[in-house]
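Section 3.1: Structural characterization of target chains.
Under the original work plan, the team committed to producing a structural model for every single-chain target entering the pipeline before any wet-lab resources were allocated. The record below documents one such target. The sequence was received from the expression subgroup and is listed exactly as submitted; it comprises 517 residues.
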Amino acid sequence: DTALHGAWPVRIIRARLPAGYNTERYRTVNDRKRARPDDYFKDWKEREALAEGMIPLVGQLSREKNVKCYIYGKPLVNRSVFEIMKDHRYVRQVEGNELSEFETFPILTALSQLDLGPAHIDIGRLAVRYYDQGAGEGLSIEQYVSQELADLIGSTAKPIDQPQDVVLYGFGRIGRLMARILIDKTDGGDCLRLRAIVVRKGKAPNDLVKRASLLRRDSVHGAFDGTIRVDEERQSFVANGNEVKVIYADSPDSIDYTEYGINNAIIIDNTGAWRDAEGLSRHLQSKGASKVILTAPGKGDLKNVVAGINNDIIEPADTIISAASCTTNAIAPPLKAMDDEFGIAAGHVETVHAFTNDQNLIDNYHKASRRGRAAPLNMVITETGAATAVGKVLPQLQGKLTGNAIRVPTPNVSMAILNLTLNRDTTREEVNEFMRSQALHSSLRKQIDYSASPEVVSTDFVGSRHACVFDAQATVVNGKQAVLYLWYDNEFGYSCQVHRILEQMAGIDFAVYPRES
C-alpha cells in the first residue's frame, strides 16, 4: 500500500479502498461496457470509496506538481465525492459506454507515482484509451500511463516564468465571478494571482465589508467555496489565503499599482465604461499596469476575441483586447462547427436572455426602448449586436446573420436559438451526432457542452464552464433548414471564457494530455 500510494498515510488510503479491490476488475472492453452490476448497493459503495480516495491524490497533484486532473473536461480539483461520481456518470450518458471509478482510480494512482511537470491531464480520456487500446496491447496501467506521459516525466518546464499579477477593475457580476475563478485556480500560486480590485468608494462606512460579503454570498451561484476574512487595517480581504487589496479610484489612469506591490499587471475591465482602444488605454497610464482585457464587446479596431475560435489573433505585442460578449461567445463556437461541416448560407439568431443590471426592477425611465419596464415581470424585446459581432470573430459569416433578443424574468442562464439555412441537406440525427462529437472530441470541447436529457431547464446550467451547451432534444431539421438550441450561463460560462483569454495574454501554456491524435 505504501508503494502504491506514495506519501499518503496508509491508514487513510486503506479506509477508502473497498474490500477486495482489484485493479484487474475492468481490464477488458466487454467488462467495461457491462449493462449493470449484480448488486447496485455494493457497486455504489465500492465506487464511492474510490471517489473518496481520489480527492487527496487530486489535491496532491495540484498543489505540489501543478498537475490539474479532469474527467472529460470536468475539473476534479476541489470536487466532492458525489460530484466526482456525477462526472463519471456524465461520460456514461454522453459516450454511450461505461466509465467507472474502478478504471479512473488506477490511472490517477499511477499518475501520483510519477515525477511530472505542470500539465492538464484528463484521466477519463486516458482510462478510455487504455481499456480500448493499451490493455489490448498487453500493457499494464503503469506502463501505459508512463508511455503516454513520457515527455512530461521529469519535466521542469513551467507554464509561465513567474506569477502574473491580475487586477479586477470593477467588482460587479462578472468581476466577482472572475475573482472566484482566479482564487479557485491559484493552487501553488505560480501562475495567475489576483492582487487587487478597483472600485469607487461607496457611501457606507463599512464599504470593505460589503464588498467582501458580495463575494462570500451570491443569490445565483451560491456561497463562496472557501473562507474570506476582512483586514480593515491593510484595506484588503483574504480569500483562501489570497490577499486582495481593495483600491478606491474614480478613473483608470490615477492609480499607482506599484505602491501595493503590484507590477506588470493585467487589468480586467469589467465596467464597460470604456470600450474603445483610446478609452481603455487610460489603464496603461497607471504605473504597474501592462495589459487590458475588456469584458464587453469592443468598438472600433479593438480585437474582439472568443476563446477557442479566433484567439490565435492575439499577438505578444497586443496590450488591449476585448473578450466580446457572452452571447457572441455562446454562438460563435457552434456556428463555426456547423459552417465547417455543413456550410451556412444564412441564419437568424434569437437570444432569450436573462435580465441584467441595466434594466429596471419596476417601471421607470430608461433611455433604451422597452428596457424601462420591470425586468422581473416582463418579457422585453430588445436588440443584440451578437449576430453582427460574430462577423468580427468569424469573417466568413459576415453579413449572413441577423439577430434579436428577448429579455426574460430569470436572473441567469440564457438561450440562443440558431435558425440556419445550410448549404446541404442533413438530418436531425446527423446534426446531433456531429455536435456530440464536437463537444467530446474536438478542439471546441471547452466551448461546447452537450445535453441529451429531455428534462433539463435553465437552472440546470447555472455554473456551466462552457461557452454554451447544445440541447440535442430540441434540435429541428428539415432538409437544409436547421434550428439549434443553445443554453449558456451568461455570467459564469462567459467568465470562464475570459479566464482562458487571460491565460493566453499572460503567456500561460499548460501541456495537455492525452495528446491529440
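The CA atoms of residues 449 and 469 lie 4 Å apart.
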